[in-house]
Amino acid sequence: MKVLRKWLAAPLATLMLLSGLSLAAPAAQAAPGCTLGWACVWRDANYGGPWAAAPADGFLSKASDKGGTAKYQSNSAWANGNACHRTSFRTGSRNGDKFFILDSETRVGSNYRDPNLANGAGRGDYSGENWKNRVRYIRFFDGPNCK
Predict the structure, then answer these.
(1) C-alpha separations of 63 from 25, 38, 68, 71 in Å
(2) 117 vs 13, 75, 82, 143, CA distance in Å?
(3) For residue 104, how many other CB atoms are within 10 A of its CB?
(4) CA–CA separation, 18 and 106 (whole Å)
(5) Any residues with CB less than 8 A from the CB of 80 and at least 6 apart, and which?
(6) DSSP state at residue 84
(7) pLDDT of amino acid 81
(8) What was the pLDDT predicted at 77?
(9) How far apart are CA 44 and CA 41, in angstroms?
(10) pLDDT in tens for each of the 147 residues of the chain?
(11) Which helix (H) or strand (E) holds 16?
């Protein structure tokens, strides 16, 4: 039986190669990104499913939905502030509310996205907590022309 398997393996591999078939796993889909000047959240991990985007400080309930609602169902996040270096993703608008911080992709270039909020997010005092479905408010800060 081992001889038969070895005998079939080489021709089968050649046939697959010639026909364009592959046993390799498909490449991971690239993250879609977030437009300059916006903060974005996606319903699913790894930037999948419907998403919402906010161009300024505010509640996600007023954010622009892209492909369905992601306003209170966020599991991945991306920050790309234009004038601001940092973005806080918050449980509310008050100063005492919990938050995590992501830097701006354009202004800073690192720590600007998190593909899975369930295992902690960004940095800050509450970054180690499960943030899945908890983001309600976005605040941009830290920059020369930042509010």
Answers:
(1) 36, 10, 12, 7
(2) 41, 5, 23, 25
(3) 26
(4) 44
(5) 33, 34, 35, 36, 37, 38, 39, 40, 104, 105, 106, 112
(6) -
(7) 87
(8) 94
(9) 9
(10) 444 334 334 443 433 334 333 333 333 344 578 888 889 888 899 998 888 888 877 776 666 555 555 556 889 999 998 888 999 999 888 888 999 999 999 899 999 999 999 999 999 999 999 999 998 888 899 887 776
(11) helix 2-19
Residues 138, 141, 143, 145, Cα dihedral to 10°: 70
Token code pair at residue 111 = 């720590």
DSSP of 19-38, one letter per residue?
HT---SPPPPPPP----TTE
